[in-house]
Every structure is written in structure tokens, then in C-alpha cells.
Design goal:
single chain, alpha/beta, Rossmann fold, 7-stranded mixed sheet, binds S-adenosylmethionine
Length: 186
């Protein structure tokens, strides 16, 4: 067994938590990898809402969804995840955020601390018991360090009676290894 990267570990956690029929969110769809993974976990009776502010990302995600026959349980939305409550009103089992920029895209389009936290807090209002919000925090780009600090500060401030908060990261790697944060509602 090998220790998993933050990204792989995010999928391990989602696989444990998400069940067929659940409603889940991919807050940063990008190329659609997480949207597809979640669509396969929730099955035809569940639903995944994928958000991205870039039309190109929405197009790539929709293509991946269509090519894998999971269209029925997937809605891809070209809007900021801070507007999540406009689109999702039912209880949520899990949400994933991959922060930073789309590697194959425009590196100047990045997630921002204020909108990220706005979205996390909205999702928390709809999160089911034992539901989880996962953030994979990349912070090597301009503005990334500030976003990381704001999110860590927020996560550390959550009442331990209400949320279990996990931080997972390789601590002996150069080049800012991503941090995984998991907030689980108790
Ligand atoms: C690290 S990438 C996501 C990678 C994706 N999970 C994948 O598997 O390809 C971050 C994405 O967040 C998007 N983004 C930035 N700000 C956003 C916002 N406010 N709401 C939704 N998406 C946003 C960017 O356009 C970018 O595609």
C-alpha cells in the first residue's frame, strides 16, 4: 500500500461517503474528472451539480459526461460556486473543491478566498449529517498562499462539536504539495 496523494485521497474519501441516490457537488469542474467520478458514485437516482466560471471547462466537463453516459444524473453549470443555492436546494452528502487554476487552461483564472468561503458556508447549511466538504488546496500560484491561509483559518475555527476537520498533506516535499481539508458534519 502506498500513501496517497491529496487528490487520490479525496477520491478515497468520496467513495466511502457517497452512496447511490445522493446529491453531491463538484464546485470546480475544470476538465470534469471529479464530476464524472461523482456521477458514477451517485448513479442514475442521484445527482451531481458541477460548477465552473469558464465556459471552456463547462464544455469539456459536459463532453466527458456525455461520453460516459452519465448525463441523466449530472448538471453542469457555467456559474460561480458562490451561487450554489440558486441551483441546489436539496440536502447535500458531499462537495469537492479543487482550488487554484485549471492546469491545461488560463493560469490567471483562479479560485478566490472570498467566493470559495462563501460557497463552503452555503453548502454547510445544506450538508447532511456525516456529509463532507473536501477542499484540495493548491497554493503555489499568485494569490494561492492567501487563499490557503484564509481557508485554514476558517477550518480551524469550526466548532469541534459540530464538525470534524481533517488536514492531510505530505510535509517533506518541495514545491508546495497540495493540502486536503475534509470538513465532516457530526
Ligand atoms: C484546479 S481547477 C479544477 C480541476 C478539476 N477538478 C478537474 O478535475 O479538472 C479549478 C477550476 O476552478 C474554476 N473556478 C475558479 N473560480 C470559480 C468559481 N468561483 N466557481 C466555480 N469555478 C471556479 C476554474 O475555472 C478552474 O477550472
Amino acid at each position: 500500500m502506498k500513501l496517497q496523494s491529496a487528490l487520490n485521497f479525496s477520491h478515497t474519501l468520496l467513495k466511502e461517503i457517497v452512496q447511490p441516490g445522493d446529491t453531491v457537488i463538484d464546485a470546480t469542474a475544470g476538465k470534469g474528472n471529479d464530476t464524472l467520478f461523482l456521477a458514477q458514485l451517485v448513479g442514475k437516482k442521484g445527482h451531481v451539480y458541477g460548477f465552473d466560471i469558464q465556459a471552456k471547462a463547462v464544455e469539456l466537463t459536459q463532453q466527458l459526461i456525455d461520453n460516459n453516459n452519465v448525463r441523466k444524473q449530472t448538471t453542469v453549470i457555467n456559474d460561480g460556486h458562490e451561487n450554489v443555492t440558486k441551483y441546489v436546494t436539496e440536502p447535500i452528502t458531499a462537495a469537492i473543491f479543487n482550488l487554484g487554476y485549471l492546469p491545461a487552461g488560463d493560469h490567471s483564472i483562479v479560485t478566490k478566498p472570498t467566493t470559495t468561503l462563501e460557497s463552503v458556508q452555503s453548502i454547510m447549511q445544506q450538508l447532511k449529517k456525516n456529509g463532507v466538504i473536501i477542499l484540495v488546496v493548491y497554493y503555489g500560484h499568485p494569490g494561492g498562499e492567501k487563499e490557503k491561509e484564509r481557508i485554514l483559518q476558517f477550518a480551524q475555527s469550526l466548532d469541534q462539536h459540530v464538525y470534524n476537520v481533517l488536514q492531510y498533506q505530505f510535509i517533506n516535499q518541495i514545491h508546495e504539495p497540495p493540502i486536503l481539508l475534509a470538513l465532516q458534519k457530526r
